Each structure stands twice: as C-alpha cells, then as structure tokens.
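Hey, can you fold this?
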Amino acid sequence: MAIPAKKNAVTQVNTWEKDLADAAVEAAAQEQGATGGTFFSLQSGQLSFDGDVFPNNEMAVIILDSIKENILYKRPYDKDSMAPPDCYAFGRDEKTICPHEDVESPEAELCASCPQNQWKSNPNGRGGKWCGNRRRLALINAGSFVNGQFQAADDPEHYQEAAIAYLKVSVMSVKAFAGYVKQVGSALARPPYGVFTKIRVVPDSDSQFRVVFECLGNVPNALMDIVIARHKEAEADIEFPYQPAHEPVVVAKAVVQPVVKRKSKF
C-alpha cells in the first residue's frame, strides 16, 4: 500500500526542506574530528534485540538522534556486571561536554581537559584513551529486507507508534558513523533522521566486529512531519543517565513468579 500524499505536501516541503538541510549541516558539524531506555545488543558481534537476533546481522531504521557519549570504567570489565561506568558524559559539542550530574566522582569539570580523555592515558599500555568516546543512537524500525531488498514500512501509524530503542556505537565504529552523517548531509542535504538507514554488524580482525551504515534512500516527504516529531521526542529523552547499582533485596519466604518473556516489537 502506497503512503498517501497530503494535499498540502508541496507547501510542507517548502516549510521543512530547508530545516532538514540546516539540521544536516549541524549534525555533520557535530561529527567533526571525530537505563532509561531499551538497548540493542552487539554481544560477540551478533545484533539482537530482547533476545531476538537479526537475520544477516542487519536492520533497517531511522536514526532519530545521536549524542556523544564518553564512558570510563576503572575496574576490570565484567560482562555480567550491571554497575554503571565510574564516570560518563553526554553531549553534542566536544568543547562543552562534561560529566553527568549523576556521576558520584567526576574525573574533571570538562571532558576536553580530563587526563583520562587524552591519548596514551589507557593503563593497558596500548596508547589509546582510557575514556571511551562513543555514540548513543536513538532508532525506530523502518521496515524489513525481503530477498535482500529493503521494503519500507508504508503505514504512517507505524512511524508514529514505533518504540524508540537505543544502540551504543563503540569507539572503533564511531569514525564510520561520523563519515556516514557527513556523507548523507553532503549528498542529500539531510540529517540522519531524514533518510532510511541500514545498520549492519560485520567481522573485524582488529576489534572483533564493527558497525557499518548505509543509506537506503530518503524518508518520503509525506512522512516527514511524523518523523520530525519523533526526532524531537528522541532529542528530549536520549540523555537519560545510567542506573546506579543496587544491592539485591532479600525478602523472607518470597514467592518467585515465573518471568514471561515479552515478544520484541522492534
């Protein structure tokens, strides 16, 4: 079913097309030099959501928003630990990004001047930064792949109601994301939320796996009012902090109810 065009579509294009181009420049500039939500998993290089793996390790999405995320773990890595980073920060400008207000012992007032955010600060001797410079992306599902061909969801209500989920882009994949943002902005004059994107996880000899990004085409003009509203929603919510670790609460004679695994809606 084709997406019905709105009667005033031409007027709307004139209204927001320049806004998209301006946002593209702003998003690209953000990449120069470069749990309050539900997250995708990239464990062992397998893309999954709520326990369900994605065929061919790829998915079609709209990237509603992205922020820079700096995280520092001083203790040894433990994949089973739910403890938050020792220090973390979110922001859009490298010059002003600073530790989140919920961090108990921030390493510095500004990340730019933090000793742990400098090259060769990593205590493992590899010469990198001890603080990991990552990205957090807010995504909604945009459709599926049928015999390798992208088929966009064609119901406007899908884009209105699709749940927002989040993806952490690791240090080794940040450069690919930054390049993708600038490429889309230069070639199409659109920010990431103005296009459909294929996100794929591929093997990598240096870092086990990497995340790569591919443009699947412009979001149709008839959907842009909805998508811009979802972008603003994501923009307002994306900087939610890490949840503090809590000691388990023991209740005498507690009756343990079976956990019913919900079906993923992404």
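Oh, and this one too while you're at it.
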Amino acid sequence: MREIRTHERVNDILLGPLERPVLQWLAGHLPAWVTPDTMTITGVLGAFVILAGYLLSNFNHTFLWLASLGFVINWFGDSLDGTLARYRHIERPMYGFFVDHVLDAFNEVLIFIGLGLTPYINFNNACLCLIAYLLLSVLVYIRTYISGEFKISYSKLGPTELRLIAISLNTFMFFLGKHTFSLGLSAVQSITYSVYDIPIGIITILLMIFFFTTSYKQASELAQLGE
C-alpha cells in the first residue's frame, strides 16, 4: 500500500491539452494574496451559486444561466486550488487531499440536489446520479490508498467534461423549455419524466459501469497478489 502523500495523480481527460496550459497560466498570474484555500472556498461558493440558480429556475428559467455561471466558478476554484499549491511549491498533501475531497463530496450533493429541484429533472433521477457519482468517488479514494494512483478520469471523461455537459444541458433547458413524458407503473399510477432525464440517466449508467468495472479489475489484481 502507498501513502496518500506520495500518490500519482491521473487526469487523462479529453480537454486536458487545453485545460492544463490555461490552469498553469492562471496560477502564474494570480495575485499573491490568493491562496489554495481561497480557491477551495471559491469552488464551494460556485456550488452554492449552482444550487441557487437551479432553485430559482422554478420561478424564471433565466436563472439557469446563473447555474451555468456557478459551474464556471466551481471549475475555477476546484481546478486551481491544487494547481496553485503545486505551482508555488506549497503543497500540503494530507491536508489538501482531505479538505479538497471532503468539500468535493459536499459540492456534489449541493449540485445534484439543486438539479433535482428544478422543474426540468426528476428528483429521484438526480439522486440516483448523485449516488453513482459518490460511489465512484469513494472508489477513487480507496484506490488511492490501495494502489497509490489517484485516478479521476475514465474514458477521457473527468470533472471538467461533466461540468461542460451540465452547462450544455442548462442551455438546452433554457432554449427548449420543458418536455415531459409519463411512464406508467400501473393503470392508475405513472411517473413523469422530462427529455432531460435521459442524458442524466445515461451519465448514471456510465458512472456505474466505471464503478463496477474498475472495482472488479482492482479486486482481481489484489487477489492475484495475495493481498
């Protein structure tokens, strides 16, 4: 087993060739008073902005743009806290790992609960997606301890791509409005879904596939090693 302080970070995302230079440039141009902790707090504030935008979309769909702005703020803070620490050589591996990922889980709860409370997404569907995301997150953290590999990208998809998908979904919801359909459980009972529940369901399935396949692969490797 490896110490978390010496883990290898794997973030092989589709947008990595574009994102990494941007983050390095931003880290080099942020004023000295901006610290990694400042960026972490900024990421949390972004999650609250997302929640507010989604809740307010019940009154006016224009607030979906506020939610999209929240995703940009969340990306800015969440992506730059570790980048800034590494750029300035002021890493605190154990503290940073703990605080960053505890708050990541909190942020995801805010985001998915907010999404489920919009008039566009079924609440149960949003919660299922949250469960799948948290399951994969737990697996990532356990694998970091077991194998020393902190892998946050699967099939070229990572948090940045998921944020862009969310912003795209917000844009479609704004311009296309609500489009619902019902699935009958019985002759007298049915559940109402929207067309936007379909991509959320697909993301849930993908996250669960990543969770089960990675879990099986890791368990098989450990069994072969006799550990």
